[in-house]
Amino acid sequence: MRVVVLTGAGISAESGVPTFRDANGLWEGHRVEEVATPAAFETQPTTVQRFYDARRRALHAVVPNAGHLALAALERAFGKRLLLVTQNIDDLHERAGSSHVVHMHGELFSALCRACGERSRWEQDLVDRPACPACGASELRPDVVWFGELPYEMDRIHRALTRADLFVSIGTSGAVYPAAGFVRAAAASGARTLELNLQRSDGTDWFHDARHGPASRLVPAWVKELL
Ligand code: APR
């Protein structure tokens, strides 16, 4: 059986990483749609860098929860028959033990050089324009996919969706494409589809099955069933 799992901010919520569209949906007083754009980076680079520096720093203070750990256990059992795709830019899946994670929106702990195009692992601030480890230019930006930019590894994700027997969406509001369309691509290819989310999402009606509650409870229960 081939499984594709898509995770969103909801799986990291119980680790203390705020989601985007719950409560006030504000980050450091900014709406993510206003800061996570190429235009914002051009016009107010310091604001955008500080927004991501704050989120990068916050990552050092949080730990994976039972939802992340259950998905790592699923990978140990399923190996390459599982593709874990995340919209999250935190490294909680990796710290929980998942080793093949597709970060379709990029990663906070990666910096992209606008001069040479190289990516470097980066855990410090970027606001002071440090030199690129590869070329020395002071042109590092967060290696994060902003609104209007192409998400990463879309071909690989679509291939997996067409071959999946089961597609499970965890902790995402189904508000942002292309991730919000994955359930339909999977179902069109004959996969069963399941939503695990705190509450109904914009996409709930597209799923064959839906269970609502906290990921730290729902994900371990579902993985236990599957194993
Ligand atoms: N357990 C399970 N689900 C939860 C929990 C929890 N403890 N807490 C919140 N949720 C659910 C919410 O009900 C919501 O449906 O997680 C979802 C979070 O939705 P968003 O905040 O919109 O996050 P996400 O869907 O990941 O956003 C997608 O939008 O801002 C862009 O690039 C950003 O990757 C992000 C994308």
UniProtKB/TrEMBL annotation:
Keywords annotated in UniProt: Cytoplasm, Metal-binding, NAD, Transferase, Zinc
Entry binding sites for substrate: 52, 55
EC number(s) recorded for this UniProt protein: 2.3.1.286
GO-annotated molecular function: histone deacetylase activity, NAD-dependent; NAD+ binding; protein-malonyllysine demalonylase activity; protein-succinyllysine desuccinylase activity; zinc ion binding
Main location: cytoplasm
Chain residues that bind Zn(2+): 113, 116, 132, 135
Residues that hold NAD(+) according to the record: 8-27, 87-90, 171-173, 197-199, 215
Enzyme class per UniProt: transferase
Classification via InterPro entries: DHS-like_NAD/FAD-binding_dom, NAD-dep_sirtuin_deacylases, Sirtuin, Sirtuin_cat_small_dom_sf, Sirtuin_class_III, Ssirtuin_cat_dom
Protein name, as recorded: NAD-dependent protein deacylase
